[in-house]
Amino acid sequence: MLKKWPMLLGHVWIWACALLFLWPLYWMLIGSFKNLKVALQIPPEWIPRQPTLDNFRILVTDFPLFRWLYNSMFISVVATLLVIAVSSLSAYAFAKVPFKGSKWLFAVMIASMSIPHTVLLIPLFQMMNKIGLTNSLWGVLLPLVGWPFGVFLLKQFMQTLPGALIEAAKIDGCSEWQTFSRVILPLAKPGIAVLGIFTFVNSWNDYVWQMIMLKDKLTYTLPVGVKIARQVQEVDINYGVAMAGALCATLPVLLVFLFFQRYFTQGITLGAVKG
């Protein structure tokens, strides 16, 4: 019996941590079904007595919610596909194609990861302004494509793949592109799935860059649109609308993670094994 106590305490600790981390999601969920008066009352209602859908109705009828959702999905999906394409090719070159200066070039790329994102906002905005991409979705997503972390992640993963597979493919007459597309990519699916999740979440939640680049209400993404939707005349923030908007902005990211959770876990496990 005494041997089971550590395991029991461990389970209790895990459940306590899970409830602690789920509490903000629960508060956001119940807050989205409260009107403004109930959302501001003290003590708060832990379970809404009279739930309402008015907050969602305001988002749909008074604001272009579905257009904001489309903009966010377009930026996140296209950025994810481009990052996977660029990062997988670059990672394959660094991991499996020896060339002169590869170590120095990779070191410079890793060093660029230490530069704070806020330092790059002004140069990136000037670049997008010169080529006429301000206030456009492409102006938001193109700077996301050059993500050094994606190259680093896939390089570390591809290094774990046996070099004998590449040698066997070349003996069979495969070109470099055929080796990459037919041998490396299928084996690197778990790593690519992990990168896809990270990229999707990063591009979806890149609120500061989106707020700087987008000025037209129809070009807003969902996180930026929620900021203006929560403003009302009576108070500074309509917490019910804010919670409803936050719920709409959270669900797509949550669904993507749940859908790719198996690949995410597999990628983390395989990427941790050397050789």
Characteristic key phrases:
0% strand, 275 residues, mainly alpha
How do the helices and strands line up, and which of them pair or pack?
Layout: H1 4-31, H2 36-40, H3 54-61, H4 65-96, H5 102-112, H6 121-130, H7 137-145, H8 148-158, H9 163-171, H10 176-187, H11 189-204, H12 207-213, H13 222-229, H14 239-259, H15 261-271
Helix pairs in contact: 1-14, 3-14, 4-7, 4-8, 4-11, 8-11, 9-10, 11-15, 13-14
Task: Characterise the protein shown here.
The protein has 15 helices and no strands. The radius of gyration is 23 Å and the shape is globular. The model is unreliable at 271-275 (pLDDT under 50). The chain is mostly helical. It has helices at 4-31, 36-40, 54-61, 65-96, 102-112, 121-130, 137-145, 148-158, 163-171, 176-187, 189-204, 207-213, 222-229, 239-259, 261-271. 72% of the residues lie in helices and 0% in strands.
